[in-house]
Amino acid sequence: MSVMVVGGAGYIGSVAVERLLAAGESVVVYDNFSTGNRGALSQEAALVEGNIHDTAKLIDAMQSHQVDTVMHFAAYIEVGESVKNPIKYFENNVMGAQSVLKAMHDAGVNQFIFSSTAAVYGMPDEVPITEDAAIGPINPYGLSKRMVEEMLEWHGKAYGLNHVILRYFNACGATQAHGEAHDPESHLIPNILFAASGKREKIMVFGDDYDTPDGTCVRDYIHVEDLADAHIKAMEYLRSGNESITVNLGNSIGNSVLEVIETVKAVTGKDFTVEHHDRRSGDADKLVASSEKAQRVLGWTPKKGDIRTIVEDAWHFMQSHPHGYED
Ligand SMILES: NC(=O)c1ccc[n+]([C@@H]2O[C@H](COP(=O)([O-])OP(=O)(O)OC[C@H]3O[C@@H](n4cnc5c(N)ncnc54)[C@H](O)[C@@H]3O)[C@@H](O)[C@H]2O)c1
Question: How far from the centroid of its chain's Cα atoms is residue 28's Cα?
Answer without folding.
Answer: 19
